[in-house]
Description:
The protein has a single domain, classed as Glycoside hydrolase/deacetylase (TIM Barrel). The protein is 39% helix and 14% strand. It contains 8 helices and 8 strands; from the N terminus they run H-E-H-E-H-H-E-H-E-H-E-E-H-E-H-E. It has helices at residues 10-15, 42-52, 63-68, 70-78, 98-113, 132-140, 161-169, 187-203; strands spanning 29-35, 57-61, 82-85, 122-123, 144-145, 150-151, 177-181, 207-208. Strands 1, 2, 3, 6, 7 and 8 form a 6-stranded parallel β-sheet that branches. A two-stranded parallel ribbon has the order 4-5. The longest helix has 17 residues, at 187-203. InterPro entries: Glyco_hydro/deAcase_b/a-brl (IPR011330), NODB_dom (IPR002509), Polysacc_deacetylase_ArnD (IPR050248).
Amino acid sequence: xxxxxxxxxxxxxxxxxxxxxxxxxxxxxxxxxxxxxxxxxxxxxxxxxxxxxxxxxxxxxxxxxxxxxxxxxxxxxxxxxxxxxxxxxxxxxxxxxxxxxxxxxxxxxxxxxxxxxxxxxxxxxxxxxxxxxxxxxxxxxxxxxxxxxxxxxxxxxxxxxxxxxxxxxxxxxxxxxxxxxxxxxxxxxxxxxxxxxxxxxxxxxxxxxxx
Length: 211
């Protein structure tokens, strides 16, 4: 039994109402998100699949990976997707001092801002770990902290690619924010599940938008 549920329970959303868990809508819209990139080959593959379905997504990028692969980061921008901050070094909020954590977020933002200047500040904490004080500080800096409604568990080696797919199609609904990863660790499950998720919901009349 997983400690972290596939579908975020309502009680968690009520405990942290200042975080974005899903988008309230009556329209057939789903919000795909991808964490941990940009990653050679995998991110580019993801962009190609999304384009086939005219789908837009939000990429929560690690600052260090942007520095290593600025050309792939530029591909994300060129395809019209939205960028979010995923810290500079993918650190855990629960085991980090608030000042250290904030500095890591701001370091990633500096990297992002070299290639993209806007006031649309989105942040997702690695591992979903963030202390209330850290969250309050970031909200004070005009960040929207984006969590999720559905976890695909694409990174989990104990989850089969078929289970990864079912995690999404059995739980996502109008306004769901879904987490995938454009990373090496998650690539096997993600590359199996993503095209099928896009096809499944496309056939049901859904569109895919960025945050």
